[in-house]
Write a structure and sequence with these properties.
Pfam family, one (chains A, B): LacI
Number of helices of chain A: 12
CATH topology of the largest domain in chain A: Rossmann fold
Oligomer: homodimer
Number of strands of chain A: 12
CATH architecture of the largest domain in chain A: 3-Layer(aba) Sandwich
Keywords (chains A, B): DNA-binding, Transcription, Transcription regulation
Largest interface: A-B, 41 and 41 residues
Helix content of chain A: 40-55%
CATH class of the largest domain in chain A: Alpha Beta
Strand content of chain A: 5-15%
Protein name (chains A, B): Transcriptional regulator, LacI family
Organism (chains A, B): Mariniphaga anaerophila
Radius of gyration of chain A: 25 Å
Distance between the termini of chain A: 66 Å
Number of domains of chain A: 3
GO molecular function (chains A, B): DNA-binding transcription factor activity; transcription cis-regulatory region binding
CATH superfamily of the largest domain in chain A: Response regulator
Chain lengths: 337, 337
DNA sequence: AACGCTACCGGAAACGTTTCCAAGGCCCGG
DNA sequence: CCGGGCCTTGGAAACGTTTCCGGTAGCGTT
């Protein structure tokens, strides 16, 4: 477990440390022949520059923090894979933290990352996220920061978003085109931009098709399977089931389906369901779930690139918002035969 | 983005760097009063010891690498959460890498981690993993290493395993008790211990109940949904479908169900299915999938603790194998009514 | 022949800690 | 009253790099 140092390589080569360093850093103040020789000997000795020492002189940690609300559903893992694709390539390490949809954990995670001198942070807010203050503090310090997917509009910071409004509108329209008039939107927590946008899309689809819509058709809940179940159960108890549901994500949609089936309703014959995000399981459940496809991996890549730009620029970078588009995957759960 | 250093704190306090350092490291060679004063001023100044400099002197990276084959299914994320629970607590950072079930990527990941001077590695082999040599090289170097879930018996190294044999036997027995005689095991790649164990459990359950079993009943394939689909498709084409399937994991089981349903077979009425690992989706699909419950989070915790023991011990640690137990979750897919 | 320029290289400071060693002050026992 | 020991602190080396600065050799120019 003892590692070889630059000094030992220099001694073996009978040259100075600087020369060895130069050979590795390719800064061209070195004769190509020497460079070659150094590299060869170093390789033979199994030398790798100690990244820690390197980071110390360069005053950079080459670490980037990623904070997500959870990673049991495949959406966030896929985003992370996109992030890693870009950052590992550039020599950065990615520290992944998850907040368990919990406000305090999120803040603790951010603190931990800050204390660890990460060069930048990529973040998706928890559904409870109201600790905008801490984020504002980071922004004020000019800390490189990118938010994705779940954001809050009061923060002026780089963001990578999905065109939630548009696709919520399309998805709702799709339900309307199946001849459904009584729809309910199972919505996410309203302080997240994402929830607002999807809700607005749902409302505007009604307007566009001259259908009545009011707040009774929108039920705010969480992002979990249980939230979907609970919501539907309450509607059943009140005997106020609609003809179709547009759900804020696949998990709540799956919960809705589960609750409906358990109570003897048929999907989509009795009630149609539309999800959002299109997780791989969507196609596995019964009936296969219609959903909005989000380019999760790409979302990660873009977020990483925005962050890199902030990290590597000397001057202050103007926050930038990238909006990605998706597609509609119609399966059985939303189709009236 | 400029950080406060220990020097500035020392100057503000009009004391030496050593004193400040001591205050933070609690090594008690310092007067409690001074310690208190230092800590207060440091906190007021917003000082945090630079972890990079610290790592350099301590000759430790306080980084631990985790390599998993994939993390789209929830099993590995859950294990990782267990690992993080333990390691973050102790001040370690966790670098997560995924190999995409690909041999070469796995080796590259290990190299990257080694080059980054991680203090230890926790690993689950890819299904293709035959690059035992590289692992052996790490073991020989006495590099702290723990394998979990997917291992290879030729490596003498600490391992955290699930009692695959026992639960495969139980799961198969459960199918037999449903009155089924013609079973097929959709198995994983045979160089993984896990595959061998589950296969042996399948075989021994037959022996125990005096049922014939031969290699034609065991079909080796991968760990993905597609592998399950392909396997069942071939059986349908050959008109050699059994009465029940015991699948090496939930993904292949879900693939099997999908393929069967598409071809008009009813699960479990025509053919019963048993999965393995019990991912959260199991309960969502139609019919709900019976499966073996694995304590994934605990697996991560144990792996992390085994690794810590290796890292923090001065002398060589004798490899240790921990075997965890689980339970059988019987849902509809395996129950003959 | 003297000069300057370029190409290459070595020495040493710097990065921010930890930790070893030495030193000063104080208390206590003789 | 003095010496030894302990408690607390300061100074400085060390960790393994990068990078600035200065130096030398060789070459071409006048």
């Amino acid at each position: 477990m003892k590692h070889i140092t630059i000094k030992e390589v220099a001694e073996a080569l009978n040259c100075s440390i600087s020369t060895v360093s130069r050979a590795f850093n390719n800064k061209s103040e070195i004769h190509p022949d020497t460079r070659e020789r150094v590299l060869q000997v170093a390789a033979k000795m199994g030398y790798h520059p100690n990244p820690i020492a390197r980071k110390l002189t360069q005053q950079r940690s080459y670490n980037v923090g990623v904070v997500v609300p959870e990673f049991l559903n495949p959406f966030f893992p896929e985003v992370i894979m996109g992030i890693q694709d870009v950052l590992l390539e550039k020599g950065y390490q990615v520290l992944i933290m998850q907040s368990n949809e919990n406000d305090e954990t999120e803040q603790k995670n951010l603190k931990t990352l800050e204390d660890n001198f990460v060069d930048g942070i990529i973040l998706s807010l928890t559904q409870e996220s109201k600790n905008i203050n801490y984020l504002q503090h980071l922004i004020n310090k000019n800390y490189p920061l990118v938010l994705f997917n779940r954001t809050n509009e009061s923060l002026t910071v780089s963001k990578v978003l999905f065109d939630d409004y548009k696709w919520a509108l399309f998805a709702t329209e799709h339900l309307i085109q199946q001849g459904l008039k009584e729809l309910v939107h199972i919505a996410g927590k309203s302080h997240l931009t994402l929830s607002k946008k999807r809700k607005q899309g749902f409302i505007d689809a009604h307007r566009k098709h001259k259908l009545p819509v009011d707040s009774s058709k929108i039920i705010e809940t969480g992002f979990l399977v249980e939230d979907g179940i609970r919501t539907v159960m309450e509607l059943i108890d009140n005997d106020t089931l609609p003809e179709g549901f547009f759900c804020v994500n696949d998990a709540t949609a799956m919960g809705a389906i589960k609750a409906l089936k358990k109570n003897g309703y048929k999907v989509p014959q009795d009630i149609a369901i539309m999800g959002f995000t299109d997780t791989p399981v969507s196609s596995m459940i019964e009936p296969p779930l219609s959903s909005v496809v989000q380019p999760s991996r790409q979302m990660g890549e873009v977020a990483a690139e925005l962050l890199l730009r902030q990290i590597e620029s000397k001057s202050i970078v103007i926050p930038e918002t990238v909006v990605l588009s998706g597609s509609l995957k119609v399966r059985e759960s939303s189709v009236k035969l």
